[in-house]
Amino acid sequence: MATLKMLAAGATEGPLTELVPEFSRASGHEVDLQFGTVGAQKDRFVGGEKADVLALSTVVLEALEKEGRFVPGSRIEFGRATCGVAIRDGFLMPDISTPEKFKAALLAARSVAQTDPAQGGSSGIYFAKLLERMGIAEEMKDKMRYGKAGRDVGMLVRELRAELGVTFTSEFIPIEGLRVVGNFPKEYEFVNAYGAAIPVGAAVEPARALLAFLTAPAAKATFKAYGLE
């Protein structure tokens, strides 16, 4: 049996952490599953690190596919993650239902956690630009707390080191002690599709079996339960 190496984006951590062990039990193939930001995982791969499956945002996968880095026809899609806000469970839920109320909630918060844009996190890069667009980047500057990846953002909130957390809701859902407030208002919505592909030179047949498992109806239901529609 094979041992597969899978580099995956943090937004897929919840469902993959649940599903991949099921695949291993059913197939006998072990999977070395490693999570990080999309930017960091892409850099590892492009820098020469070998992987049998790459699970990143669709935009990045499409770009890598055009460079001929994947086995033809191997790319699949898991679902779409949406950016939202979370708080520590038991705390008062802010109203973020409109752009005005979302802005007010951010300004009222003592601290807000996000992924560090410098680490290549999609949500962090977007949110930094959104604060500029909203005209409150300077006011928020001293309130911001940075996590290396989405899970780190959730932990900052759970450990009361940040009042609000901002990243893909799929990264908040697996963390016990957090409560998802909701998605960004429609006007500020950020949706990112995620999927996977098999790099050239990978253990192709076991990798294909893994992707087939992850796109089966039961697996799709699991992705949806974690906020990847």
Walk me through what this model shows.
- The protein is of the alpha/beta class.
- The chain folds into two domains: 3-79 and 193-225, D-Maltodextrin-Binding Protein, domain 2; 81-188, D-Maltodextrin-Binding Protein, domain 2 (3-Layer(aba) Sandwich), CATH 3.40.190.10.
- Helices cover 41% and strands 25% of the residues.
- The protein has helices at residues 13-27, 38-46, 58-66, 99-108, 122-134, 137-140, 150-158, 169-172, 204-214, 217-225; strands at residues 3-9, 30-36, 53-57, 76-88, 112-115, 144-147, 164-168, 178-183, 191-197.
- Strands 1, 2, 3, 4, 5, 6, 7, 8 and 9 form a nine-stranded mixed sheet that branches.
- Helix 1 packs across helix 9 (204-214) and helix 1 packs antiparallel against helix 10 (217-225).
- It is elongated, with a radius of gyration of 18 Å.
- The model has no long low-confidence stretch (mean pLDDT 95).
